[in-house]
Amino acid sequence: IQRLMEQKNTLNEKLNILIEKDEKIVFLNAEIQDKENKIIYLQEREENLNLQKTQYQKLQITNDFTKYQKLDQNLQQLQYHDNLSKNNILKTGMVNVKDLTEIANQRQKVSNAQSQLIIKQNLIENRQLQKEKYLKEQDKQKSEIMQERSRLNYLKKINSEKQLDKFEPIQMSFTAFIPLTIIEIFLLIGGLLLRKTHAALSVIFIVLAVLLPLLTVFLYFLIRKKQENNYKRYKEAVRKQRMRTLKIENSLEDLEFSLQKIESRSDIYDEEIDALQNEIKNDIEIFERESNKLKYLIKPYFTELPDDNQLDNAISALREKTVDNVHNEEKEKYLKRELQNLRGNLSAAEFYEQYQQAQNWLIEHQNQLRTFPEYSQNHIDSQLTGIAEEKTIISEQLAADKTNLNLLQKNQENTFEVEEELNHVIETLKKAEFRYQSLTLAMHLLEYSKQNFDQSIRPQLNHKAAEYLSIMTGEAYTDLKIDQNFMLYLQDEDQVFKKQANDSSGLNDQVNLALRLALTEILQDKYIQLPLILNDPFVQIDENRSQETLKLLIKITKQQNRQTLFFTSQSSIYKLLENLDDNIKNSVVHL
Hints:
By secondary structure, the chain is mainly alpha-helical.
């Protein structure tokens, strides 16, 4: 208990020091986590601002190009109308409002069908690109799985070679010391024989005889210690190798799960592409049907039917010819000037290419785009500059905190292990104190019980058991006694006490029954009569003694007013009971 108390105090002091260090480490970890979160937040904000900046530029290009297309279309309509007037391909100069409205509505249906077709075509191209991307990722995952499997097989092969049961420690039997013993005996004999003639040589022989076994034992334990160290290092190497194998197996399971997800996603894209292709077929049929209907409606008004590319211009010319034939040259100049302003120094082809790039960018980042507050370009640039400066300051602070954390964690012991050790010592101390108290109390109780048994119970037990045994054996044994060491002695007809262990099995059964009946009577509560339960106590007793014992049981039952439950598989016992008691039939239960 004293040793555990000292160990407990030492661990308490050690734990307090470790807890103080842990609190500092927790505080630094919290500071580091907070700064890392701030850097992540600033990076996300920077990315959002860059995305907003790019989105703003791309949308501006798209809007300008849309305006450019509308203005260019208006200009082409003006020019086409002039060409129609010059070529005189219109059959009539006027169209009624009803027919013109029907033609315009039909053209709108054709435009809608064409727009749906273009949207579906763009969508299927996008899905095919995404499918190709997932197929590349699938091939990459398969390659990684193959590499991980080859590594796993290699490690399993190494693990199969490194088995702990193959490491055999040094085995040395006592027979190995026989030659040493013989040499020692010869040295001792030689030393004794030469003691008178060569005293110095005799001393040398005797010293060698004493030191030789000590030296041999020392070398044996030295080699044994070295072998144990080698075994520990070998065991640690095997453990590390198995941990690497387990880590690779987990990584392989993750890769296979990721591959299953990619394959599942690829199948989804195939289904979407098939569905889009079917929809495109239906849209093409709708577009062709509506286009034919439009051509049928405008055919009566033209001497020469326009091709598909000129339908809009033809219908516009027809409408303008009917509603208003006045074309202003100033409008055409205005449109050309606006087109030049929108295009800037770019040619029409370069301006279209720039628009296509903006559209592709918006499609690729459609999942990331969202509505941003309206900021000017200068405001976004100033925000980006401020974020870069703030990131630099926080990064410097983060590096300093990590340096301090590394200094604290260097050679830091595990607080949990120390606390667990302390709890173990406290628990051991409690158990030791409790066991000390329990042993002390048990010792006093045993001494008291033994004194009480020797003074009050043993004399009564000897007398009562001897009385019952004498009756059961037909006075073959008239007395018994139990000494202080609980050894049992029986007195035969010759008045000689003998140990019970030398008696027959039947006599031992009678002695045990006599002791049981005596103890029951001595220890029984005076006011509560509990039943006596016996299970075949006469298996090894002859008929005469069985009869005497049954008489005794019947007598005790009546005298003590006690119920006796007697279980037996011997029919002879039942017959003996019938002879002894006529009313026994009413108390017998056959199971």
